[in-house]
Specification:
- By secondary structure, the chain is of the alpha+beta class.
- The chain has three domains: 82 residues; 122 residues, no CATH class; 42 residues, no CATH class.
- The longest helix is centred in the N-terminal third of the chain and has 24 residues.
- Iron/sulfur cluster (SF4) binds next to helix 6 and helix 7.
C-alpha cells in the first residue's frame, strides 16, 4: 500500500518544530508580536522556514512518494498561515517571549535559551519535567502559557480546570512557568492551532481554584504511588485515544469494567473535578 499521508504524531512533531523555528526567525526579523500590519512579512518568513524544514525532513524521512510529501507540506503551510492570521487578530496585547521553555530536560538547540536543567518544583509536592510551547507577557509583565494542539478540539468553554485529571497542561505548565521564571502567570491555555482544530482555544486562569485542583490531583497520584495501587481503570472510551493502547491491548477497557473496584474512590472524585 502506498503512503497516503503522514501519521498524526509525525505531522504534529514537524508542525511543532516549524513553529519553534518560525518563532526564532520572526524574533530575528523584529516581527513579534505578529500583528495585521506585519502579517504579510510574517508569511514571507514562514515560507523561508518551511522551505528549509521541508528539505531537512525530506533528508531525514526519505518519503517514498513526492506528490504525497508535497501535499503534506502544502497542508502544513495552510495551517500555519491560518495560525499566524489568527494570532494577528488576537486581542490582549500578548507578546511572545519564550518558545519551547524546557525544565528538567537536557540542554538542546531546540529549546528556549532560558530553559533550565532542574525540574520545576510545583506546589511544594512535585517536580515537573517538560517543555512549554509558548510563554507570552502582557503590558503589566504578567505571563500566559500556551500548549499548542494539532488535533481536533476536544475541550471548549470556560469551565475547564483539569478536566477530571485528563487536561493537566494548562495548570501544571502555568505553575512550572512561575517556578522557572519567577513571575506571575495569569493563565494557561490549550490552543488548537490548525484548521482541523478550528483555531479555537480554551483558557484556564491560574487562581485558587485551579491551584487547589492541581494540589488534589497530585495528592491522589502521590497516595496511589505510596500504596503501590495503580490498577488499570480507564474511563469510558479513553483507551480509544490512548497512546499506550498497543501495550495494554484492545480489551483493557472491557477487562477493567468487569472487575469490581472498591478502592477507586479518590480516582472517581478526581474525575468529577472540572
Ligand atoms: S490503553 Fe491502557 S493506559 Fe491507556 S487508557 Fe486504556 S488502560 Fe489506560
Amino acid at each position: 500500500m502506498q503512503l497516503e499521508q503522514l501519521d498524526p504524531l509525525t505531522r504534529g512533531s514537524i508542525f511543532h518544530e516549524i513553529q519553534f523555528r518560525l518563532f526564532g526567525a520572526l524574533r530575528e526579523a523584529a516581527l513579534l508580536p505578529v500583528t495585521s500590519a506585519r502579517l504579510e512579512d510574517a508569511f514571507g518568513v514562514l515560507d523561508v522556514v518551511l522551505k528549509r524544514a521541508e528539505r531537512d525532513y525530506r533528508d531525514r524521512l526519505a518519503p517514498p512518494i513526492k506528490r504525497v510529501w508535497q501535499a503534506e507540506f502544502e497542508g502544513l503551510r495552510a495551517d500555519l498561515r491560518g495560525w499566524l492570521r489568527h494570532v494577528a487578530d488576537e486581542p490582549g496585547g500578548w507578546i511572545p517571549i519564550h518558545a519551547e521553555l524546557g525544565f528538567g530536560l537536557a540542554r538542546s538547540g531546540e529549546r528556549d535559551p532560558q530553559s533550565v536543567r532542574e525540574a520545576a518544583p510545583v506546589l511544594s509536592v512535585a517536580s515537573l519535567r517538560g517543555s512549554i510551547d509558548l510563554v507570552e507577557a502582557d503590558a503589566a509583565g504578567r505571563l500566559r502559557v500556551t500548549d499548542h494542539k494539532t488535533g481536533v478540539a476536544r475541550h471548549a468553554g470556560s469551565s475547564l480546570v483539569i478536566g477530571g485529571g485528563k487536561v493537566l497542561q494548562p495548570v501544571l505548565y502555568s505553575l512550572a512557568a512561575e517556578a522557572v521564571l519567577g513571575r506571575d502567570v495569569v493563565s494557561g491555555r490549550l490552543f488548537y492551532c490548525t484548521q482541523r482544530g478550528g483555531y479555537s482555544d480554551v483558557s484556564v486562569p491560574l487562581d485558587e481554584r485551579s491551584r487547589g485542583a492541581a494540589r488534589r490531583m497530585l495528592a491522589t497520584v502521590d497516595r496511589a504511588l505510596e500504596e503501590g495501587f495503580l490498577p488499570a481503570a480507564p474511563a469510558k472510551d479513553e483507551c480509544r485515544y490512548c497512546d499506550y493502547r498497543s501495550i495494554c491491548g484492545p480489551y483493557e477497557e472491557l477487562r477493567a469494567a468487569r472487575k469490581k473496584r472498591r478502592r477507586l474512590g479518590a480516582l472517581n472524585d478526581l474525575r468529577l473535578e472540572r
